[in-house]
């Protein structure tokens, strides 16, 4: 069987991928393969990326993110054809935003292996998912708007409509192939995401060999509201820092995407040191929460109309323990002196770690990028020579 885990984003994907990645060798001994093809080798860390984002990047035509050295869908076809394993798992939340044509292309590769195919999608109550997505986009430098502005844009974005996403995949693989799981302890097997995921693969999570595999605690959790709002103010240019502050100069000069992300991670670590990440804050108004609750209930109903097993309707807001926000979180609620101390601590952290944003040729992060670029150039030249040879023949 081939299993494709397609997310959704901020629905436990990192937790699932960390478990699969850290136990890939042990899982192979149980006839379960989490292929390394399609997962970029991080040479500086001597490890593979946790997810198969490379496949998704190729399918979506994202040439700037696709690494041919890590293997694309053609390599996947070869891997599946030669694989002796009973179950093969592919995982990337980036699969969720593949369009119908990309899903069909992947299907042609998977179906050629002649094995049953299952699509696993984890969804989450939008009341929890919206603030989580907001946090992720801030720490990656993608969003500089306050939560209310983000919310108005996010709720109109079909990329986060679980029914529309499921439909794109079901149109190709059929609704019988879909397995929709809900990220809610009361809806998960044993109240545990990993147990529930293994169950979706027809594996018994209570089997001693599986129960013995190490598991990390929840991965990729959101930072506290003060950390997030300090990051947003920094990227938006209204942090109150002097123009000659190291961070202000860094932001003003512009940072590529990978450095924005690393700076966001460093800011989260600084927030943790300040004790800010214990208070997640509250972002939703009652009206916003009710809108999300209705939209989520409608998605569950529409999914249930097509799935072999119906999904339970969502709990009401009171049962979820929802509490309306008292104020719209913003960096202006952080005392100026405390915020200044945070930025200075972050600047010190950046200065002490060449891997955070430096292009120092001796840094491990830069060495990784240079090695990847060299390998990509070699692969491209090899492909061009092969194409030239075929044309000459």
Distance between the termini: 39 Å
Q: Give the neighbour order of strands across the main sheet.
A: 2-5-1-6-7
The Rg value, from CA coordinates, equals: 22 Å
Number of domains: 3
Count of DSSP H/I helices: 17
CATH architecture of the largest domain: 3-Layer(aba) Sandwich
**What ranges have pLDDT less than 50 throughout 5 or more consecutive residues?**
359-369
What pattern of helices and strands is seen along the backbone? EHHEEEHHEHEHHHEHHHHHHHHH
Strand content: 5-15%
* Secondary structure category: alpha/beta
State mean pLDDT (0 to 100 scale): 89
Note the main sheet: 5 strands, parallel
Q: At the third CATH level, what is the topology name of the largest domain?
A: Rossmann fold
General shape:
globular
Short structural description:
The protein has 393 residues and is an alpha/beta fold. 50% of the residues lie in helices and 7% in strands. Helix 5 packs across helix 8, helix 11 (225-236) packs antiparallel against helix 13 and helix 13 crosses helix 15.
């Amino acid at each position: 069987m081939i299993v494709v885990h397609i997310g959704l984003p901020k629905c436990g994907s990192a937790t699932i991928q960390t478990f699969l990645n850290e136990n890939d060798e042990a899982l192979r001994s149980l006839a379960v393969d989490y292929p390394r093809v399609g997962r970029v080798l991080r040479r500086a860390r001597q490890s593979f990326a946790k997810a198969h984002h490379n496949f998704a990047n190729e399918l979506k035509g994202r040439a700037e993110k696709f690494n041919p050295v890590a293997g694309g869908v053609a390599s996947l076809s070869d891997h599946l054809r030669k694989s002796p394993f009973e179950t093969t798992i592919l995982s990337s939340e980036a699969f969720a935003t593949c369009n119908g044509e990309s899903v069909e292309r992947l299907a042609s590769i998977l179906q050629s292996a002649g094995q049953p195919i299952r699509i696993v999608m984890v969804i989450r109550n939008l009341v929890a998912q919206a603030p989580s997505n907001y946090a992720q986009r801030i720490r990656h430098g993608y969003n500089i708007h306050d939560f209310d502005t983000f919310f108005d844009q996010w709720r109109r974005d079909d990329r986060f409509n679980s029914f529309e996403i499921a439909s794109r995949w079901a149109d190709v693989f059929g609704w019988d192939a879909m397995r929709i799981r809900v990220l809610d302890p009361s809806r998960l097997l044993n109240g545990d995401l990993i147990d529930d995921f293994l169950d979706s693969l027809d594996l018994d999570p209570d089997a001693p060999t599986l129960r013995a595999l190490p598991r990390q605690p929840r991965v990729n959790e959101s930072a506290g509201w003060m950390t997030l709002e300090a990051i947003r103010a920094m990227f938006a240019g209204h942090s109150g820092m002097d123009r000659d502050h190291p961070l202000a100069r860094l932001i003003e000069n512009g940072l590529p995407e990978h450095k924005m992300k690393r700076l966001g991670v460093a800011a989260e670590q600084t927030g943790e040191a300040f004790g800010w990440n214990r208070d997640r804050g509250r972002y939703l108004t009652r009206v916003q929460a009710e809108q999300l609750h209705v939209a989520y209930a409608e998605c569950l109903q529409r999914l249930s109309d097509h799935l072999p097993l119906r999904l339970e309707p969502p709990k009401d807001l009171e049962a979820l323990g929802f509490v309306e926000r008292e104020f719209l979180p913003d960096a202006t609620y952080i005392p100026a002196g405390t915020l200044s101390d945070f930025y200075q601590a972050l600047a010190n952290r950046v200065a002490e770690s060449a891997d955070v944003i430096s292009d120092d040729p001796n840094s491990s992060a830069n060495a990784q990028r240079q090695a990847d670029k060299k390998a990509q150039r070699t692969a491209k030249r090899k492909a061009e020579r092969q194409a030239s040879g075929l044309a000459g023949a």
